[in-house]
Model the fold of this input.
Amino acid sequence: MAEEPIMAAEETAGVVARLKRRMIEEAMPLWSTVGWDHEAGGFIDRLHREGTADAAAPRRVFVQARQIYCYAKAAQMGWYPEGRAIALKGLEHLLAKAKSPDSKPGYVHRLTPEGAVLDGRRDAYDHAFILFALATVYALDRDAQVRAEIDALLAFLDGHLRSPHGGVHEGLPVSLPRRQNPHMHLFEAMIACFDATHDLSFQNRAGEFFALFLANLYDKQKHVLSEYFEEDWSKIEPVSVEPGHQAEWVWLLKGFERITGCPTGQRRGELLTTALRYRDEATGCLIDEGDASGNIRRSTRRLWPQTEIAKAWIAQAESGEAGAAEEARAALVRLERHYLNHPVRGGWYDQFDRDGKSLIDTIPASSFYHVLCAVTEAEQVLDG
Done:
């Protein structure tokens, strides 16, 4: 199999500045113009491969929340001042259409393009991203109404989604299997809420998810994060390993350490070592799925694990690990080279097979959050 091509020093040295420029000059304008529904309101869920809006695609509520995060974050960073107004417009639409349209608490799962309810389930993963978006918007203005929405969402989680076995149910109605994924993103949201509010209760809430990670989600012997569980947190065998999630937890644990002072270095090192077992030889990119023994189960490779391995190395660089900054830049070059070099400016490829053939015909909005988060982290840590 072909070896990963050598990277030129100038290619890695300038990657953060190039990606920042790509975000500001290409992605931000694209997803707020073509990527906004100017008739019905709300963000478009995906673009056709030539860059036109797929206006007929259903609107996943977590994608609406992710786009709100992107524009609020870009405004907060000073990258895109008009992002504030776009985020607020997106939030207004989300609250009007997705929050309790059936008079029951919580947010619905999917909307039609016109804004009607397509799927009325209450999904924990969606609520994690809505909370994350609210925290990012709150950080801009500290608006009391936004804080009230944060508190209302927390009350819904506490009163309706909390499981007696720890963590949250998948959603309402309750379903199995349970997944680590919504818990990981609720952990992320609680850290963001603490950063936005400095309210110590969010340290405690984040701490609950950290405890769940150590007790149930993470195998301390095998250094593997499990994905699927029964109601009582017993693992569903054979264990599925998503290297992108292993990497994502590295970055999140560093965030938890930052807000609490709780040391996480050992677990971060273990998770990162495990994630790096699952790489595509030809490109160096993370693949989509492996097993607990280090074998590759699915050799396809999506975009988002590449942003997460970059963020994992950024977290390690922030901790002072030798060589981590160089690894982070190399991961960002792979992201740029293989996924962001798309004929549509501000677009991306979502997934490739092992031969490098693109598998997804559309440009999903859901990837913007992953890319923007990696680039903002890179600027703050690597070029800070």
User: Anything to note?
Assistant: The two ends are 38 Å apart (CA to CA). Residues 44 and 160 are 30 Å apart (CA to CA).
